[in-house]
Amino acid sequence: MSDENSFDTGSLPEVTRNNPPVVVCDNVHVRYKTLATGKKLKLGSKDVMTRKRELREVHALKGISFVAHKNESIGIIGSNGSGKSTLMRSITGLTPTSEGAIYATSRPNLLGVGAALIPDLSGARNIVLGSLALGLTHDEIDAKFNDIVEFTGLEDFIDLPMRTYSSGMSQRLKFAIATSVQHEILIVDEALNVGDKKFRDRSEGRIRAIRENAGTVFLVSHSMRTIKDTCNRALWIEKGELIADGPALEVIRKYQAFTKAEKAKETEEEPG
Amino acid sequence: MDMARLAAEHGLERVGGRPSLPEYVKQLLNRSDFTYTLAKYRMQSENERNRLGMLWVLLRPGFSALIYGTVFGYIMKGASARPDDFAPFVIIGVFVLEFFNTSMNGGAKSIISNASLVQSLPFPRIVLPIAKVFQNLLDFIPTFIFMALLVILFGARPGWDWFLFIPLVFLFWVFNQGVAFIFARATVHFRDLSQVTPFISRMIFYTSGVFFDLKVMIDKINPALQPFADWQPINNVLSIARGILMKDGVVPYDYFWHLAIWAFGIFIIGFVFFWQAEERFGRDE
User: Fold this and answer.
1) Inter-chain contact A20–B10, Cβ cutoff 8 Å?
2) What is d(CA A251, CA A234) in angstroms, rounded to the nearest whole number?
3) What does the alpha-carbon distance between residue A152 and residue A171 come to, in Å, rounded to a whole number?
4) Is residue A117 less than 8 Å (CB to CB) from chain B?
5) Which residue is closest to A67 within chain B, CA to CA?
6) Residues A104, A22: contact at Cβ < 8 Å?
7) Which chain B residues touch A116 with a CB distance below 8 Å?
8) Highest mean pLDDT range out of A17-21, B5-9, B114-118, B127-131?
9) Cα(A252)–Cα(A228) distance, integer angstroms
10) Number of residue pairs across A and B with CB atoms under 8 Å?
11) Closest CA to A76 of A188, A206, A215
């Protein structure tokens, strides 16, 4: 066991290091090719009418490697556009890797059931439809239905069409459906920032429960508080590179030092 | 120690691969509840928004039949190849073709209009075109009953041979499903195709003998082309339906096996064609 963990700096020692790996990212590169249009125009320049389309390559991930173990909950942090979401999308298999490979025990799920729901139907019917979309059977849904309704706190509105819900209400419904299933590997992309304080506390509890029930959670968030509260490990990605991987508190401390330094630099550069 | 070996040791599989064909069929069967519920709920929600609700399922082809009946039955009276009993003839043509058209167009959009669903949840993508065509089948059944009532008004009398509709509708459904598979994948590769499908369905409308007898028409052009009429799958369906429903209709039993070959051939080709691109659906190209 010691050998296979030599490159794995992240996990907290006792809890997860001895658990089997569930996701392995091996030197993952992602490159996009996009047509760059909209060149800067110079005054009086003749090529206003000639459209030059240039193929630009965006190197979104530059060789990310890590091993995620069973039972870990991993926070992904980094500035905007650093490649966090690209990494999550590659893990689900939706964005193909240009180099390297990703292995997983089961197909990782994004936490999101919203796309399966139909706004014209009642909340209750949407619970059935959403749960089926997540792979539950009718019997399992019957057993879980009341729990889901209770968790949303929408008992009085459950027979109204979903389109009549406020955005907070429908977010709650979606979160309740999505987390009612035991995911083996779950990816949550900034989902915890919705709803009021009471609901936020409850949803953090749910994420923790998923983790404790032998699942692995990836959480992408800009809220350091959320990461601190829910994750035991963090990955810090900056400009497509993995800068730090380790216990959540340590990585967050490094990241915060970095952002502070960046801010200081910016204010220096723009005097006045 | 290399990571690929670590992954293999713990039985991890590479993400983004495509399951084998038998595995894929198994996954699909496991999702039959989802497929059925998706079709049922979508049909209800699409029709409940309108004030007349489910009635629109009947009104849509009803209006088309009225328009074509008026244009080709009265305004262009005397146009060649107009069969006897024109009203039931057109009604059967328009109503039956509606199932094909909605399946082809719906199939073409089934993946691209569900992009966010495809990107957020793992399930065999073929669920989407299947649910769409099944939804169209559910829409077709009341249409079909309405059509039978109209034809009775024009003098048809129900008989035992009306039970032939069970195999006919089944084969037609299988055929439409195959077509939907092919278009569902094709529009993912060439998104512009979804702009072209309305023209394709119009082309099929005018060449399948909806408001004229294809056999009679082809006889006038060039009798050597007769096999075209005998093997045109939509004409097969329409001719059998008319043979069953119309007053002096004769069921062309030959056409049943022509249609069966088409239906299962297209279904299998379409299924494999769709499966081959399974891992590409939802990716941003």
Assistant:
1) yes
2) 6
3) 9
4) no
5) B3
6) yes
7) 38, 117, 120-121
8) B127-131
9) 8
10) 119
11) A188
Residues A116, B283: C-beta atoms closer than 8 Å? no
What is the model's pLDDT at position B219? 83
| Nearest Cα residue in chain B from A122 | B45
- CB-count exposure of residue A231 (10 Å: 0-12, 13-18, 19+): buried
What is the separation, in whole angstroms, between the first and last Cα of chain B? 34
A63 touches chain B (CB under 8 A): no
Query: Which residues of chain B approach chain A closer than 8 Å at the C-beta?
Result: 1-4, 6-7, 9-17, 30-31, 33-34, 37-38, 41-42, 44-45, 48-49, 114, 116-117, 119-123, 279, 282-284
Q: Which residue is closest to B19 within chain A, CA to CA?
A: A107
**Nearest chain A residue to B42, by CA:** A118
User: How far is residue B266 from each of residues B36, B174, B177, B203, B273, measured CA to CA in Å?
Assistant: 22, 8, 8, 19, 10
> In terms of Cα–Cα distance, which of B91, B136, B167, B129 is closest to B267?
B129
Using one digit for the tens of pLDDT, what is the confidence trace for A233-264?
999 999 999 999 989 899 999 999 998 888 88
CB-based contacts of B43: which residues, under 8 Å, 6+ apart?
Answer: B135, B138, B139
A179 and A158 in contact (C-beta within 8 Å)? no
CA distance A157 to B209: 52
CB within 8 Å: B33 and A115: no
ipTM above 0.85, yes or no: no
Please tell me the distance from the alpha carbon of residue A109 to that of residue A89, in angstroms, as a whole number.
10
Chain B residues with beta carbon closer than 8 angstroms to that of A129: 37-38, 41
Q: What is the pLDDT of residues A64-111, one digit of tens each?
A: 999 998 888 899 998 888 888 889 888 888 777 888 889 988 877 777
* In the block, residue with structure tokens 């069967």: B29
Q: Is A110 on the interface with B (CB under 8 A)?
A: yes
On whether the CB atoms of residues B41 and A125 are closer than 8 A, the answer is yes
* Residue A139 in tokens: 């019997």
Query: Has this prediction a pTM greater than 0.90?
Result: no
Token pair, residue A155, equals: 């008992």
